[in-house]
Amino acid sequence: MGWYIPNQNNEYGYALNRKRARAKPKARQHRTVICTICEETFQTLAVNAKYCSEPCRRLGAKLLEESPNKKKAYVRTPKPLKECIMCGTHFEPLNKVQISCSTQCKQDRKRQTARDLKRAQAKQKVCRHCGNTFDGRIEGRYLYCSEDCFETHRVQTKAEQRRQKKSGAR
């Protein structure tokens, strides 16, 4: 029942009705500040105000710019030059692990490493026709060492199939 008692405070010092429980934030009050340039007093609502007017602010910014103890801007230190592993030109890397100078060299490097990887993983295969060994591919697509072996094996296989059909038909 205490929530609905209007205009009363309890023994703890806070309002018992809902409207007073939701207190409004205090309005900002004007402060009196002394300008750092012309030393004139002025009223402001801002917490960090230093200057009384726009001309004083500009003059203060100019003095700050010329002061020797102002913070210096971050200057990027140049990284040592690296040599591109594809074309051999010298370049400034963007990070520690960059090894190529351009996007084109990067793509060429990827293609080259993919080819090298396939060659390294290639298996020794035996030709179905002549029995010679050759480097096969990972996919296992190649069964013959050359086009000639493939053609001769295909012709011989077709001839055998025709003979079998004729002998099976009789």
Overall body shape: rod-shaped
Report the biggest beta sheet as strand number plus sense, adding barrel if it closes. Answer: 2 strands, antiparallel
Number of DSSP helices?
4
Q: What radius of gyration results from the CA coordinates?
A: 43 Å
The overall average pLDDT, rounded, is: 78
The side-by-side strand order for the widest beta sheet comes to: 1-2
Class derived from helix and strand content = alpha+beta
- Helical content (DSSP H or I, runs of 4+): 25-40%
Question: How many beta-strand segments?
Answer: 6
Helix and strand run: HEEHEEHEEH
- Low-confidence stretches at least 5 residues in length (pLDDT < 50)? 1-7
What share of the residues does DSSP label as strand, in percent? 5-15%
Distance between the termini: 111 Å
Structure description:
There is one protein chain. The chain is α+β, with helices and mostly antiparallel strands and 170 residues long. Among the domains are: 28-62; 80-121, no CATH class; 123-163, no CATH class. 35% of the residues lie in helices and 11% in strands. It has helices spanning 18-21, 54-66, 103-121, 147-169, and strands at residues 31-34, 41-44, 82-83, 90-91, 124-126, 133-135. The strands form 3 sheets. Strands 1-2 form a two-stranded antiparallel sheet. Strands 3-4 form a two-stranded antiparallel sheet. A hairpin with a 6-residue loop joins strand 3 and strand 4 (90-91).
